[in-house]
Design goal:
Blueprint (H helix, E strand, L loop, with lengths): L21 E3 L5 E3 L1 E2 L10 H10 L12 H20 L7 E5 L2 H9 L6 E4 L4 H5 L10 E4 L5 H14 L5 E5 L11 H10 L3 E5 L11 H4 L3 E5 L10 E5 L1 H6 L10 E7 L9 E6 L13 H14 L6 H17 L5 E3 L14 E6 L4 H12 L1 E2 L1 E3 L4 H8 L4 E5 L6 H17 L5 E4 L2 E4 L24
Parallel strand pairs: 3-15, 5-6, 5-7, 7-8, 8-9
Antiparallel strand pairs: 1-2, 4-10, 9-10, 11-12, 13-14, 14-17, 16-17, 18-19
């Protein structure tokens, strides 16, 4: 496919690990992997991988060790905390708590919220489900989004006015299904006018656009390292201190306490109890030995992207996204999904979800992988209520672009989808444990098995 839409995208962007990875196809050929699934998990930056390799020899327990490596690891964690705060434009008195991921960060905040929580129905499950069983069993209310952004904001205002006891409004910064951005600063004003705070799930926004906690006027932001070009295992919650200092510890244990004592019991030989003085946040919620490498990696990713996230990254992705959407519009039977009627294309990340005629989404994704070496996502993307509204609950296919993506990747996807729309898959497929899979599938299922070696990789092309 050749599009006259734009010249090939060429921006000075950092490289990711595995940019030249090749993968096997079912017909015996090999192809350069076309990774269009960065919304699920983005590959680590080469600079981040190099930083992790550099710090690995300095292995020591943080905060409480007198050894030199313990001091180095403590500095790594605390410097990473500062890097994250700078990247999200935190206020001077905001606190940065390291967590496992965005879901964990929102679960931590749920323990601290002192009242009802309001969300939209288009949220990722991490935001929809976090508040169940929150502090004192705080009520969770879901507002149905309108067909447009303006109507959605009106519905949110109406809910907050009708029941003005909400303590927190929680919304996504960018839809993980459609890439559409919400007007976070305006939502912050709406929440504050009703006496509520605002939490932004920035997992899908942070890799693509500036997160500006202070500039938005938001109160909390959560994000994941593995979507921000760092390895798996680290996320953060950043925001106002007072709720976090008053909350029960998210993880109780060593490092979260100032002192622990054992109380006596009046009964002879009876059980005693403990009296605990907890530290303030962030240590209060980071009990146990922290994920030092995860924190260091996330901090390194923030440092690398700091000077690129306002200009180079959005410019790269906008051009590619325009090319993708123009190409998809030419594919017979393909329908692109959108949350809103009034959201301009410019207000989207480079994430596009679609259906392809009557072909099952899982079959489309399996064929793209097995026959073309293209990785996409299929399903309902942990956003079941939104997919119920957009497709009647039918699964969809999602292509998400990032730093690894080039113009040729976009063209490969459009060409492959055009083939599938016109002729269907060339291989045979069947449902295996609920997932579409090639039958037979000659590709190695576990290339890292100890008794198996990857075959030599022949020359491969795009």
């Amino acid at each position: 496919m050749t599009l006259a839409l734009s010249r090939p995208v060429q921006h000075a962007l950092p490289r990711v690990v595995g940019a030249d990875l090749t993968v096997p196809l079912v017909d015996g050929r090999w192809a350069r992997y076309c990774d269009l699934d960065s919304a699920a998990s983005a590959p680590a930056l080469e600079s981040v991988a190099a930083h992790v390799a550099q710090v690995l020899p300095y292995h020591g327990s943080v905060h409480r060790g007198a050894g030199w490596t313990s001091k180095v690891c403590t500095a790594l964690v605390e410097n990473a905390r500062a890097d994250v705060a700078r990247f999200v434009r935190a206020r001077a008195d905001d606190v940065v708590v390291f967590t496992r991921n965005t879901t964990d960060a929102l679960g931590l905040l749920a323990r601290a919220v002192p009242g009802p929580v309001v969300t939209l129905d288009l949220e990722h499950h991490a935001t929809l489900l976090a508040w169940r069983g929150g502090t004192g069993g705080a009520e969770h209310r879901v507002v149905r989004a309108g067909h447009g952004i303006a109507a959605t904001l009106d519905a949110l205002r109406a809910e907050l006015a009708a029941r003005p006891d909400a303590a927190l409004v929680a919304v996504t910064g960018a839809s993980n299904v459609t890439g559409e951005l919400l007007p976070v600063a305006e939502i912050a004003r709406i929440a504050h006018a009703a006496g509520a705070r605002l939490c932004v799930d920035a997992a899908q926004l942070a890799p693509h656009r500036r997160v500006d906690l202070a500039g938005w006027g938001a109160d909390y932001v959560a994000l994941s390292g593995h979507k921000l070009y760092a390895p798996y295992g680290a996320g953060v919650l950043v925001g106002r201190r007072n709720w976090l200092d008053a909350a029960e510890p998210h993880v109780a244990g060593g490092g979260a306490v100032r002192s622990v004592g054992v109380t006596a019991d009046d009964a002879v030989d009876g059980p005693g109890g403990t009296v605990t003085e907890w530290l303030p946040a962030p240590q209060r919620h980071e009990g146990g030995t922290p994920n030092v490498l995860g924190a260091a990696a996330l901090g390194a990713a923030c440092r690398t992207l700091e000077d690129l996230i306002d200009d180079a990254v959005p410019a790269h992705e906008r051009e590619l996204a325009a090319r993708l959407r123009a190409g998809l519009a030419t594919v017979p039977g393909l329908r692109i999904l959108s949350c809103f009627d009034d959201g301009p294309d410019a207000d989207r990340t480079a994430t596009v979800s679609f259906t392809l005629g009557e072909l099952p989404a899982g079959l489309v994704a399996a064929a793209l992988s097995a026959e073309y070496g293209i990785g996409v996502r299929d399903g309902r993307f942990c956003a079941h209520p939104l997919l119920e509204r957009l497709t009647g609950g039918r699964d969809a296919v999602r292509a998400s672009l990032g730093l690894r993506t080039g113009s040729s990747d976009v063209d490969r996807l459009v060409d492959a989808l055009t083939d599938l729309a016109r002729r269907g898959p060339a291989w045979t497929y069947a449902l295996v444990d609920g997932r579409w899979a090639p039958t037979p599938d000659p590709r190695p299922a576990d290339p890292f098995a100890r008794d198996r070696e990857l075959p030599a990789v022949p020359g491969c092309g795009d």
